[in-house]
Amino acid sequence: MSNTYKSAGVDKEEGYKTVDKIKKAVGETHNSNVLNHLGSFGAFYEIGGYKNPVLVSGTDGVGTKLKVALDSKKYDSIGVDCFAMCANDILCHGAKPLFFLDYLACGKLDSEIAAEIVLGMVEACKDNNCALIGGETAEMPGMYQPGDYDVAGFCVGIVEKDQIIDGSKIKAGDKIIALPSSGFHSNGFSLVRKVFPNFNEEFEGKPLYETLLVPTRLYYKDIHKILEEVAVSGIAHITGGGLYENIPRIIGDGLCASIDASKIQIPTVMLELEKRGGVAREEMFGTFNMGVGMIVVVDAQHAEKVLHLLDDAYEIGEITEGSEKINLKITN
Questions:
Q1: Distance of alpha carbon 41 from its chain centroid, rounded?
Q2: Distance of alpha carbon 166 from alpha carbon 89, whole angstroms
């Protein structure tokens, strides 16, 4: 019997099945700017309508949250997470997402699982007026065990050069407004899985994995609703490292983000993790978003308007003069 690619562990037919299952849905994310279709060697996207366009790109994955999804056999939300982690980053600079590409790697491809993951990306792209224009599925026996998957994505957006938001306009007296997260999003899951080893345990009347797998919130509509009405000085996506690591990325020298942690609305599942795992409150804020998925910094005179535009946004602090870039006042 001669060797074949299939005998080495790679089933090309399963890959073809995956494409068949996602092709129509992926096509629904396309607009007139997409110049080719799924299956080409490269993806083409035409840019028009901008005077001095700047492309803004971001790439990310979902970390070990994927392990929760695989063990719970719930795959659709992971695609949303992958897209959101990339798209939310480029929103911080005022960009609108144009197109997205994904990378899916596994030990043995199951077209049903792969399609569910990609279809989650499709729904997220639709919600953000973004085209899913390409991707790669890699079946790599020996590198991954059967049943193992990894997923990553790459998002490109666009913004006029004179409208780029980079934090340079932030000044003392500006207000810091929080946009709530939908939970852990896609960060800190190595600690989550250590404290919560049983994803099937009951939490607040349902299996814990349902709470853990709530997808990362998509902020495109919220951020651009604000940008249409208000001059925003800075935006930070609160991902790994929490408020401590992400807010200083937009704060200039001589300024400090003074935040009152007691104002932050912490999700109950995070409070349960803190209690059960014996995790210090400062460690919690340095690992998780703690209920704050994004923050926007605006002039004090615009703060009330932002709060009016977004029903669930709320103020958590202000910019002061100082050298430490962030002062998070924590009380247990």
A1: 27
A2: 12
Q: pLDDT tens per residue, the chain (332 residues)? A: 677 767 777 777 888 788 888 889 999 999 999 997 666 788 899 998 999 999 999 999 999 999 999 999 999 899 999 999 999 999 999 999 999 999 999 999 999 999 999 999 999 999 999 999 999 999 999 999 988 999 999 999 999 999 999 999 999 999 999 999 999 999 999 999 999 999 999 999 999 999 999 999 999 999 999 999 999 999 999 999 999 999 999 999 999 999 999 999 999 999 999 999 999 999 999 999 999 999 999 999 999 999 999 999 999 999 999 999 999 988 76
Cα 153 from Cα 187, distance rounded (Å): 16
CA distance 113 to 148: 11
At 214, list the tokens.
């709530």
Long-range (24+ apart) CB contacts under 8 A made by 21-27 are 21/111, 21/112, 21/115, 22/115, 22/118, 22/119, 22/122, 25/118, 25/119, 25/122, 26/118, 26/122, 26/132
Q: Which of 73, 211, 234, 207 is nearest to 147 (CA)?
A: 73
Residue 290 CA from chain centroid, whole number? 15
Token pair in block for residue 148:
């193992």
β-pair type (292-298, 175-180) = antiparallel
Given a contact cutoff of 8 angstroms between Cβ atoms, the answer to whether 15 and 139 are in contact is yes
**pTM for this model (two decimals):** 0.94
Cα distance between residue 116 and residue 279, in whole Å: 34
CA dist., res. 30 & res. 51, Å (int): 23
For 81-108, b where at least 16 C-beta lie within 10 A, e where not — what string? bbbbbbbbbbbbbbbbbbbbbbbbbbbb
Contact between residue 22 and residue 137 where contact means Cβ atoms under 8 Å apart: no
Q: Are 23 and 38 in contact (CB under 8 A)?
A: yes
